[in-house]
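Researcher: Batch entry, complex prediction.
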Amino acid sequence: MTQNDSPLSLLRRLSNGLYVVGVAHGIKRGGFTAAWITQVSFDPLLVALSVNPGHASFPLLTGAGAFAISILGQGQLELARHFGTQTGRSIDKFATQRWQPAAGGAPVLSDAIAYLDCRIVACHPAGDHELMLSEVVGGAILTEDVLPMNYAETGNLDGSAALYPPRF
Amino acid sequence: MTQNDSPLSLLRRLSNGLYVVGVAHGIKRGGFTAAWITQVSFDPLLVALSVNPGHASFPLLTGAGAFAISILGQGQLELARHFGTQTGRSIDKFATQRWQPAAGGAPVLSDAIAYLDCRIVACHPAGDHELMLSEVVGGAILTEDVLPMNYAETGNLDGSAALYPPRF
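Model: Structure tokens for the complex:
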């Protein structure tokens, strides 16, 4: 088996959800969309979040050592678009949304279907991203009976198609 | 926001696919199901795979430093069941399946919808699992127009519900 299809066509067949990661540090607050999140351990209960270190919210994330994952539901494309846009990096994207702080202080979207309250326990370089191993210390279901959004549902909303190498 | 729902009810709202990880080292071959896989970098093209180090195939995985991810499609529950069972740890689960070796030697299910050929570049402890950062060096689409399986579709096939702590 030596035939290689394009990295984009192959990697889009991995399944991911779509999430809004909320961070707060001092008086600053930020939020961004993320798809590269997965559970990695049962006990302790750990998730891994892969983050672009060039992102405007990255210093808030590492400074606070904590974040909240708001899980978007199917059909919440407008919320994804609001937090996924690259314009307005200096504005607080939560300001126009209904939100509440998690126990750790990070902002949670009240309209998400659920949230996880996370504490960073280790950070590892991962190519052009940083991988944050994080303990889930709490969370709640906010809307019952709505399925989580699939990242594939968002099309190329985040413009990521252009970031894949054209071939192996 | 201090209400905490159960870890199981919250974590099942993260979206994952279902995959068969194939490994080969020397004359030995093995395969197991995995859901905790996500892309983590564009350039280099990296994925993270979280693996239980007590798994029978773990020594093959670390010995070979390579593996193949066969991506299961919707409806392929029988394949998931075959590779997900905990019985018969010493048998070659590929023996009764149609398979071919990837360029790196790891077995790929011919009936999967696509596969990724991976090389381990770093390994980090992650609670009760080990996180394998791995470069995707090739792969191919095997079946067009079939959507990937969602892990949620498998119910409690792998018995993982019992592995979550009952509360935070």
